[in-house]
Automatic annotation (TrEMBL):
It comes from the Bacteria. InterPro entries: DinB/YfiT-like, Maleyloyr_isom, MDMPI_metal-binding. Residues 10-153 form the Mycothiol-dependent maleylpyruvate isomerase metal-binding domain. Keywords: Isomerase, Pyruvate. Gene3D superfamilies: dinb family like domain. GO terms for molecular function: isomerase activity; metal ion binding. This is Mycothiol maleylpyruvate isomerase. It holds the Pfam family MDMPI_N.
Length: 204
């Protein structure tokens, strides 16, 4: 399997390429749930922003050891914030992309790739003040770029050719999150064709 940095780079480049293919007249159309397409792209683009931002931090202790544990912890944080706060962050991120979202995403991509060059595996501080190693955090961003890239593709009818290393990282993490939230048996049975997933089932 590719390194966490390599998989993230693959996902980030594929995501930026997808954004470039979104027609200019589609940005106000439905994206995902209550988000229009601009807000969905803004939300997904935060996976580039947060990596650059968190690389400027330094945590005193390691609170989260694995990507799946991050998602377990983030559930509690999201619940305390409320759904509206998450929705509004996405809307604001969409507005921040400005008049040329593709160019804005290119700038975010260039910045994060530069920030990752030769960075190693520092202990960073992420949302909620949690300390986590970069190599444990990056798979969560690869996951977000992969899933929301697919959301954008479905909303627009565009293809999204996610590189194999990024897709493998995201799919593997989805299964591991399932185990971490005590739904591993449900996921395994569904993946092996032995049972259907419950209605509205999600690991995140």
């Amino acid at each position: 399997m590719a390194s966490p940095i390599a998989a993230f780079q693959s996902a980030a480049r594929a995501y930026a390429e997808l954004v470039h293919r979104i027609p200019g007249d589609r940005w106000d159309e439905p994206g995902l749930g209550e988000w229009d397409l601009r807000a969905l792209v803004g939300h997904a683009s935060r996976s580039l922003v947060t990596v650059s931002t968190y690389l400027q931090t330094s945590a005193e202790r390691e609170d989260v050891a694995t990507p799946q544990d991050y998602y377990v912890r983030i559930r509690d944080i999201a619940a305390s914030e409320g759904a509206e706060a998450v929705l509004e962050r996405g809307r604001k991120a969409g507005r921040d992309l400005g008049d040329d979202p593709a160019a804005a995403v290119d700038q975010l991509l260039s910045r994060v790739l530069d920030d990752l060059a030769g960075v190693g595996d520092p202990l960073i501080e992420v949302i909620g003040g949690l300390g986590i190693r970069l190599h444990a955090y990056l798979p969560t961003r690869t996951f977000e770029l992969a899933v929301h890239g697919l959301d954008i593709a479905r909303a627009t009818g565009l293809s999204f050719d996610l590189p194999e290393d990024a897709l493998a990282e995201a799919a593997t993490l989805a299964a591991r999150i399932g185990v971490a939230i005590s739904a591993g048996e449900t996921v395994l049975l569904a993946l092996t064709g032995r049972a259907a997933l419950p209605p509205n089932f999600s690991v995140v």
